[in-house]
Amino acid sequence: MKPERETLEKQKREAEDKVRSLKSYVTELTGTVEKCGTDSTLLEADLTKAKNDAQFFEDEAARLGESLAAECEESTYWVQKDSKGEWRWHLRAENNRIIADSGEGYTHKHDCLHAIDLVKASSNAPVKEK
Q1: 42-97 pLDDT per residue, tens
Q2: N- to C-terminal Cα distance for the chain?
Q3: Is 81 helix (H, G, I), strand (E, B) or coil?
Q4: What Rg, from alpha-carbon coordinates, does the chain have?
Q5: CA 83 to CA 126: how far, in whole Å?
Q6: What are φ and ψ of residue 89, in 5° steps?
Q7: What is the pTM of this model?
Q8: 13-17, 26-30, 69-73: lowest mean pLDDT where?
């Protein structure tokens, strides 16, 4: 598994754990207020902060989940500069494995993007055997 994907999955798990923890805290605090007859206004700031934090982490987990899903939806061309400062591309399949690459570096990004366009345009090229 690719390190970026592992990082996203870890961050998503951590956000989900925080949501569970915060929701448990809100439930426990609310129960304590009701059980002990404590004035709820004394704890209102804590409850509001915990609820807002839980919502934030729910949204964060959802965003991370969308990022993970988008990463696996389709084949994607990736463009980057190599250690020599040249532009290269590679194509990742749905399973996130590299299935094609530029094989050479390009001085200009637009040349690299043009090479991708040439590959895309060759989808009807015949397959020959030697």
Answers
A1: 788 888 898 999 999 899 988 888 777 766 567 889 899 999 999 999 998 877 78
A2: 35
A3: strand
A4: 25
A5: 35
A6: -130, 155
A7: 0.51
A8: 69-73
